[in-house]
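Weekly structure sync, notes
Attendees: PL (lead), two postdocs, one rotation student
Agenda item 3: pending single-chain targets
PL asked that the sequence for the first pending target be pasted directly into the notes so everyone works from the same version. It is reproduced below exactly as submitted, 142 residues in total.
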Amino acid sequence: MIMLSATEIQKIIPHRYPMLLVDRILELEPMKRAVGIKNVTITEPFFQGHFPGQPVMPGVLILEAMAQVGAVATLYPAENRGKVALFASIDRVKFRKPVVPGDQLRMVAELIKIRGGMGKLWCEAFVDDQLVAEGELMFAMG
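Predicted structure, written out during the meeting:
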């Protein structure tokens, strides 16, 4: 099983602070599946305004973090390095529990299909083994 540090992740996807939302890849099966983590801290820039006195990680950033884990699985092979995966559609998304400072977000992304430059992922995010978000993400790779 392949594991990747934040530095190694940055060799695969173009995201950088403050938009790099994956700290480590715990499991990687290229073009199939990846599991990654994001340590959510009170120092995240989005907590300044979301929400003062009651910080909650924005759902759209949870989706972005899940997509980044899926992008690592998809862009890891040498033939895909240097490409970018962009959202094409998002379906069947559910947010089940707020993510707050101190949580460790564990994201699982599984590649459902890829054809040409289009792909589809099923993603789930967990905190302490409790499902907090899930959805189907379609992307265009170019």
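Discussion points:
- The chain has two helices and six strands.
- Residues 6-141 form a domain with the Thiol Ester Dehydrase; Chain A fold (CATH 3.10.129.10).
Action: rotation student to compare against the earlier draft before next sync.
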